[in-house]
Amino acid sequence: MDELNYLIIEHLKFSNIHEEHPPWVIKNSNIGGRGLFANRDIKVGEIIFRDNPIILGPRSSMLCPIVCVSCYSQENLYPCSRNCGLPICSNQCENSKLHNKECQLLVGWKTECFQSEINLSLLKCLTPIRSLLLTDNKKTLLKLLKSHSGAQHGFEIDILKGKLGLNFKEEEENLMRLTCTVLDANSFEVTVGNEQGRTGLRGLYPLSSLMNHSCLPNTMHNFDKYQNMIVKAATFIEKGQELFHSYTRLVWGTPVRRTHLERTKHFFCMCLRCKDPTEFGTNLSGINCKECGDVALPFYSSDDNVHWECVNCKHLIPNDKVSVIFRVLGSRVKHFGHSDEVQEMVKFLKQKIPNYLPPYNQISVELKYRLIWILGHNPKYLWSGK
Ligand SMILES: C[S@@+](CC[C@H](N)C(=O)[O-])C[C@H]1O[C@@H](n2cnc3c(N)ncnc32)[C@H](O)[C@@H]1O
Question: Domains of the chain: which residue ranges?
């Protein structure tokens, strides 16, 4: 713990964001491993700390757009002229300190598949490669962070070796594999871009990554233009309380959050919100009861065994049936978002969803959020003020 604390403070000092008397302290947590705790009362809205990523880079999902590896812009991209296979958008980006270093490394590994074209697979695997460029202190810090075990973590290295035919030294491969497991356990999504195009990167913020999860978090965060993460108090936090953030979207209902946490972070959340089928009276996971027209809510018979039960007539609905309804409606809502679809969105909200779900279910709420982003913001749908 002392070494971790020391290395985090060195990292913050190096990034010029260290505070002399910070309101946090690292301690063992009853919830799991280490956690961050308030060492004094913290007011709502107060900045608790700033953090800077020791690694930042593209996400590994093939659905993510192609971005410049220096500034993450999606415009004017061309392959780096040194044939490293990575996309660049300007001379300045091509000659940035980070890209120069990674370019040298990649060109040194050169195989036939790195030609003068952008190599998408390489781009998606770039973030763990960046761990090889860290200073010794930052490598040690990375090794002290939580990692996940399991075959699904580290597939990026299999792509680099298999599809791209790269051969690394054993210690390079070990560090990159470890980095994948650390990124999967700790990384934050950082949104970059502008109105023309946004994308999510993954960033490893060492101090922030010590915060455990709660579905009722007491912190919130945003990012500045340098990708520093700014963590603030979302509620009043009393001295001694643990600092939590949410690893899921807050608007997701309990079964969706729990499944996500189990699949991606390998634990079952036991917070007060997860234990309350009504989620503090919001009934976010509620589904219409076809028998009596009231609402059925999720009840857990074990960590991963859930069924829906009507609060009025006690009619039971199996999880399989609810999952199909959530999947089909959720997938439709996920793909809405364009201003041309407003009429269709409203129709779906008013006519389709009510056949299955009450208006306070997470899917209805999600769709209303999407409409809010368009109505009053999109030039086609500005309020007339009348
Ligand atoms: C980002 S790390 C958080 C810091 C971690 N406790 C440590 O010691 O480094 C995420 C991991 O912490 C544990 N964890 C976080 N929140 C938890 C919770 N609410 N319940 C159980 N385990 C949790 C899980 O092992 C999870 O994969």
Answer: 2-52+205-245, 55-202, 255-374
Pick left, alpha or beta for residue 338 (phi over 0 → left; psi -120 to 50 → alpha; otherwise beta). Answer: beta
Q: What is the pLDDT of residue 15?
A: 94
Cα distance between residue 55 and residue 202, in whole Å: 8
Summarize pLDDT for 249-289 with one digit per residue, the tens: 999 999 999 999 999 999 999 999 999 999 999 999 999 99
32 lines ligand 1 (CB under 6 A): yes
Ligand 1 site, residue 124, Cβ cutoff 6 A: no
| The residue type at 124 | K
What pLDDT score was predicted for residue 192? Answer: 84
pTM of the model: 0.90
Report the separation in Å between the CA atom of 247 and the middle of ligand 1, taken as the mean of its atom positions: 10
Q: How far is CA 326 from each of CA 18, 289, 333, rounded to the nearest angstrom?
A: 45, 15, 10
Q: Is 199 in the pocket of ligand 1 (CB under 6 A)?
A: no
Query: 17: CA distance to ligand 1 center in Å?
Result: 25
Cβ partners under 8 Å of residue 45, min gap 6: 232, 233
Which residue is closest in CA terms to ligand 1's atom 19?
Answer: 213
What is the C-alpha to C-alpha distance for residues 36 and 24, in angstroms, rounded to an integer?
A: 6
Q: CA nearest 38: which of 26, 24, 22, 55?
A: 24
pLDDT at residue number 151 = 74
**Pairing of the two strands 212-213 and 242-245:** parallel
The minimum-distance atom of ligand 1 relative to the CA of 34 is: 8
Compute the mean pLDDT over every residue in the chain, rounded to the nearest whole number. 92
Quote the CA–CA distance of 220 and 128 in Å, as a whole number: 27
Q: Is the CB of 86 under 6 A from ligand 1?
A: no
Ligand 1: does its nearest atom lie under 6 Å from the Cβ of 246? no
Helix-helix angle 362-374:319-335, to 10 degrees: 0
Average pLDDT over residues 120-138: 95
Structure tokens at 145: 């962070």
CATH fold of 2-52+205-245 reads Beta-clip-like (2.170.270)
